[in-house]
Amino acid sequence: MNTTEQKIQTLREELRQHNHNYYVLDNPTISDYEFDIKLKALQALEDAHPEFYDVNSPTLRVGGEVTKNFNTIVHSHRMYSLDNSYSLEDLQDWETRIKKLVDGDIQYTCELKYDGASISLTYENGSLLRAVTRGDGVQGDEVTANIKTINSVPLQLKGEYPAKFDIRGEIVLPFDGFNKMNEERIANGEEPYRNPRNTASGSLKLQDSAEVAKRPLECLLYNIKADKLPFETQFEGLALARQMGFKVPEAAKLVGSIEDVFEFINYWDEARHDLPYETDGVVVKVNNLFQQDELGFTSKAPRWAMAYKFKAEQVSTVLNEITYQVGRTGAITPVANLEPVELAGTIVKRASLHNADQIEKLDIRVNDTVFVEKGGEIIPKIIAVDLSKRPSSSRSTLYITECPECNTALERLEGEAKHFCPNYNGCNPQVVGRIQHYISRKAMDIEGLGGETVALLVNEGLITNYADLYTLTKEQVMPLERMAEKSAENLVQGIAASKQIPFERVLFAIGIRFVGETVAKKLAKHYKTIDDLSKAGIEDLERVDEIGIKIAESVVAFFASEENRTIIQRLKDSGVQLEISAEKLASQTNKLEGKSFVVSGVFTSVSRTELKKLIEDNGGKNVSSISSKTDFVVAGEKMGPSKKEKAEKLNISLISEEEFLQMIT
Ligand code: AMP
Ligand code: ZN
Does residue 554 sit in helix, strand or coil? Predict the structure, then answer.
């Protein structure tokens, strides 16, 4: 190695270490001035010797790369959400549930729940490969250039590390830095930012990384994900992350019981006010990774973790008016318009009132002084009325009887909480909302077309339903406000590309009431074509696993409408996928129909996830705990003894991985 290269390497090493001392350990060993001198020396050498360029050099922290469009990246491990709890009893209930599913004692890792923006970092051979936002959990936006500017994110790892892994964490903006940013803004005559959390998450999507570099963001890490992990517990994972150079708050604690978890919670409910950044709760995780694996995930969240939310802040303010919103399904939501008030760092002007019963139950009236609370949700809610302040002229609220958008008389179905407007085809927010849902990310994910443009297209009379999208031409949309030739082209192209979206998502996109993502998957798999689904009667539908009367009736009602049938036919004529692809069909059988399986232990030739998918693809059903209704337990290595005992007691067949694979070949 020649000496210049050596010099460069040495400087990079040194700067990395100082960076780590300063930003991760909060313990600098040289002055800022000395640091700057070294950084400038490195910069000069790098400028003179571009042949030694390194994407992860400490000189590149200052940013400068500009991203116009962020790439979409599918997470190699899905980023789940967390279930919430609010009391000791909630946590005890959780423990009772999970104790039925795993063997042995359970230990818990307690961590603080940092309130910022979640991020997934991928490292390969010790260097940062990319950073991706959570997005919808399945896929997010690549924001590597921006994340690199955050000093507590190591670009190069120390010590031993897995060859390739993801690490999850939260980008936060500490109060100090946030306040400084605001002082500057005010001095410049700009609006101050409302709260650290939104400012942190907004920072991730700034186009100019040099702007991000100016913001004092921090990255706190909490979870390593890889196909094979070099540790067996969450707590060890945190320790390893620290050794590799990540910032992992020391507050994390390993405890042996839910009572100890609660002690941790009580302590931090107070102590968190002294932390330099915002936290909104505690996350409790089953410590043993093998037990985590046994517990698995629901469709939204891990069964092995639980968030505990600190009590929300409350304020009181005056309710000025109640207005009513019409959703895409025609459901009416009453909204409280409040005298603006500050709550948990944001100005609150509106709160959801949910439905007529809610208003009646709390006897909420215009001009009342009400208590407003903000939990983790974006929309705050009204929890009570301050009756001592009720004006004597007060009169109880009369719920509307007609649609505020189209004046049609509202209906309320038996057992339904919400009123709805039955004017399916003539009520503007329903027409627009349905198409907006159709194009949305989880549905047809149409690039180049946004919700506002949909509203514009409807209001201009260019479309009245989603099938109309496929006959739109560039010439038709170009005259619209804020449309240029390029954007019109993108719009038409994005619509054409949606013809490749698989049937199950189309089924979700067409917006049959109560048919969400999961139900759409179930129906697509069972009926395979929209024709067969449209012919199904209520009883037939109810025989499909997990489809109840409410969904069945809604599906039948949807296809009973002549209008809907015409629209579906037009989608079909346009080439939209209205049946399961041949490929998918080939991998599916009914060999396991009607059989339910519990998968337990560790497997050799297929992963547990693959095994579960094989069960579903072949018509079987996965359940998480053994009961008399279970048909088979697929037993891998390390299956717990109590599960085995239970299966034997209930006379349920225990089969090996090989025996299972035999069943489907
Ligand atoms: P929620 O968005 O309320 O479902 O909560 C889940 C989110 O909490 C995750 O996506 C993380 O971004 C965030 N979070 C903050 N701190 C932690 C932590 N220590 N462990 C896990 N998740 C955390
Ligand atoms: Zn209406």
Answer: helix
Task: Give the side-chain half-sphere CA count within 13 A for 524.
Answer: 24
| H or E stretch covering 309 | strand 305-309
Q: Which domains does the chain have, with CATH numbers?
A: 3-62 (1.10.287.610), 74-86+101-257+273-305 (3.30.470.30), 428-500 (1.10.150.20), 503-586 (1.10.150.20), 596-663 (3.40.50.10190)
Please tell me the predicted confidence (pLDDT) of residue 345. 66
In 3-147, the DSSP E strands lie at 72-74, 84-85, 108-114, 117-124, 127-133, 139-141
Best residue among 78, 170, 265, 279 to mutate for probing ligand 1's pocket (most ligand atoms within 8 Å of CB) is 170
By most ligand atoms within 8 Å of CB, the mutation choice from 86, 114, 219, 261 for ligand 1 is 114
In angstroms, the CA 308 to CA 108 distance is 13
* Chain mean pLDDT for the chain: 91
Distance from first CA to last CA of the chain, Å, rounded? Answer: 58
DSSP assignment of 631-643 equals -EEEE-BT--HHH
Cα–Cα distances (Å) from 661 to 540, 589, 596, 601, 656, in that order, read: 30, 13, 15, 16, 9
The β-bridge partners of 111 are: 283
Q: Which residues pair with 140 in a beta bridge?
A: 73
Q: Where is average pLDDT lowest: 237-241, 274-278, 384-388, 640-644?
A: 640-644
pLDDT digits (tens, 9 = 90+) for 156-186: 999 999 999 999 999 999 999 998 998 888 8
Interval between CA 82 and ligand 1 midpoint (Å): 7
Instruction: Give, to the nearest 10 degrees, the angle between helix 3-19 and helix 32-48.
Output: 150
Q: Kindly state the DSSP code that residue 403 receives in the 8-state scheme.
A: -
Q: Give, using CA atoms, the residue closest to atom 16 of ligand 1.
A: 113
Alpha-carbon distances, residue 518 vs 93, 398, 515 (angstroms): 26, 37, 8
pLDDT higher than 80, residue 551: yes
pLDDT, tens digit (0-9, with 9 covering 90-100), for 196-215: 888 999 999 998 999 999 99
